Amino acid sequence: MDERLKDILEWLYCIIIAIVLALLFRYYIGTPTIVKQVSMYPTLVQDQRLWLNRWGRTTKKMPERGDIITFEAPSKKTYTYDEIDESNPVAKYENKPAGLFGKFKYYVLELGKDSYIKRVIALPGEHVEIKDGNVYINGEKLPEDYLQSGIVTDVVGAGFEDFIVPENCVFAMGDNRTHSTDCRAFGCIPLEKIESKVLIRIWPLNLWGKVD
């Protein structure tokens, strides 16, 4: 084989290996992201850079209350009053990619896929009530020091406000309650749809560190 061709093939081989390893690391271990919406204000602000820990998805570990997570956006984001079923408050995921390449593009490359970033409020088996501008877990008011002063928690229009969180699901909301489309509107998130946990803020540098 021509020496020059051999060198080119070796470089291509190294590049392919590097890309595969990077994709595996991104999917199973962690990845950076940029905050694009205002639903987690003031905890997270638009254009901040975060590092996401995806090891929890790899090990199928249930997040804890207070964790800030990312998850695949449900296919159905709003309901009418007639469609709300608080006996089965699970978000619907009906748009599934077809074919091996379609799944690779959607789940690994994350092309055409929308994700939300919210805070875990309630865990499997817990009774959630949203009333009087507050959140109650198993009958007790949830302390939420991360909210801005004066922020109230309401369900606007048709939504989930009195239910039991199903097994292997979490109930999550944005800290900016009046500007957040979250589980109040579309139901609880199955564990299999949770993508990552926010680990640290990496930009701006003066705010570098763990996000609570």
List descriptors.
212 residues; alpha+beta; Umud Fragment, subunit A; eight-stranded antiparallel beta sheet; four-stranded antiparallel beta sheet; 26% strand; elongated
Give the gist of this structure.
This protein is α+β, with helices and mostly antiparallel strands. The protein has helices spanning 3-28, 55-59, 100-108, 183-186, and strands at residues 30-34, 49-53, 68-72, 115-122, 127-131, 134-137, 140-141, 162-164, 169-173, 189-190, 194-203, 209-210.
Written description of the protein model:
With 212 residues, the protein is an alpha+beta fold. It has one domain: Ribbon (Umud Fragment, subunit A), CATH 2.10.109.10. The protein is built from 4 helices and 12 strands; from the N terminus they run H-E-E-H-E-H-E-E-E-E-E-E-H-E-E-E. The mean pLDDT is 94.
